[in-house]
Amino acid sequence: MFDLKENIEIKITQEPVPYTEALELMESRVNQIISRSNRELLWFLEHPPIYTLGTGADMKDLLTDKFEVYKSGRGGKITYHGPGQRVVYLMLDLKNLYNTQKPDLHKFVGDIERWVTAALSEIGLKCFIKPGMIGVWTNHRGVDEKIAAIGIRVRKWVSFHGIAINLDPSLDHFKGIIPCGISEFGVTSLRTVGFQTTMEELDLVLAQKFADIFL
User: pTM of the predicted model, to two decimals?
Assistant: First the structure.
């Protein structure tokens, strides 16, 4: 992989990262970015099977105790992470990214949606943004299903947490929760809808489209 520009590093971790370790690294890196002692970072990784709770989570949406549950501090509700899902944590200085002292967080989330949509469209998947529901969706066999989730936190205009794209996770594990608190729609994956994309191919197109959208 490559750096997007001098001040943004890309890090890819091959082995699944325990969630507590990821939180510790993000906390440390965000503080370093705030103090200008380190570069911004896009961190590509996977987690062991877990459920995470956003600040808007309702415990009624947790239907099983099969996996460990973590409070994440990000926005959003409850979601699943596990092998076969590409997580990208975005540790970005939004003032620098948007060249303003007061960035628009709604625009940032919208740009993330456009980024993921552009990347998946480049692979060949027809996907879209669903009004009022954060994330990226596709229509599989006549049913709208979420294929990518977004959950962000910001500290002193530096972002962390990020996105989770379902490449080929066990979709059965989503049955232990009401994903993102949305019961009327399900989730899907690239593999389920017929794409044989590898994680390396997905990473490359994500990096390329990030540059197109944000830089």
Answer: 0.96
